[in-house]
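I trust your eye. Have a critical look at both lines of this record:
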Amino acid sequence: MLASEDTRLNKTVDRLLGDRHCLPLSVALHLVPGALIVVVYLLIAEPFVEAVGYPAFLGWAIALFLVLIPVLAGLLWLGLERNGHLSLRGVLHYIDQPLPRGKLMVMVIALIVWMMVLGFALAPVNNIVKDFFTWLPYANTGDSGNNTYLDLDGYPHSVVLTTMVICLPLTGVSLPLIEELYFRGFLLPRIAHLGGWAPVVSTVLFSLYHFWSPWAFLSRLIFTFPGFWSVWRYKDIRLSIGMHVGVTSALATVGTIAVALNLV
């Protein structure tokens, strides 16, 4: 019995760490974490933040944390199974840093500007599309897909500031970093056999993964695709990490400072 379980486990590890993921497997690995985030929010995080009098934004941060930390642990476990010690070598790809530092910096800055400008420009479109999703039980949490601080209005200043300080290292830095490690370092290379369609599929599935803000699907496609395409084209995950974490950390930092100084 134990031998057969070990065999099944080894086959699962080999399948996950193989050079190719079939499309159904890749779709599942992209979307299941997003579905779990919504479930965790509705069953655990939302009741908790409502009970303690904190905004839904903190609830989403908690839900993301409770799902993405196990995702990171799963990647580390795969590394342990492959390497015999905790390592992401062989689990993640596009980590050999082929781009020279100067070119990397220029490209990351350009991608950050693109993501910020397009994100804010398309926010009104998200708000229009959101009218079609009012039936969702979490549609009133204020997340437009680009401005995650809309639901902070009406709370005491101390509560808002505490929320921002807690969320800054989470939604600003660590959780976007885990998303890039998982989606671009683990999943994208394993659909590289799709050729030029690989970054398209990756972007579409990543946008769909955000079940908590489906109204931002189209805008997210537009402002993330150049970064994800660049990772595929240059095989350097630092491009999307720099873009994604750069934008989220900047917005979280500015938002926290603005709240601390009573500017908003």
Observations:
- The CA atoms of residues 98 and 231 lie 11 Å apart.
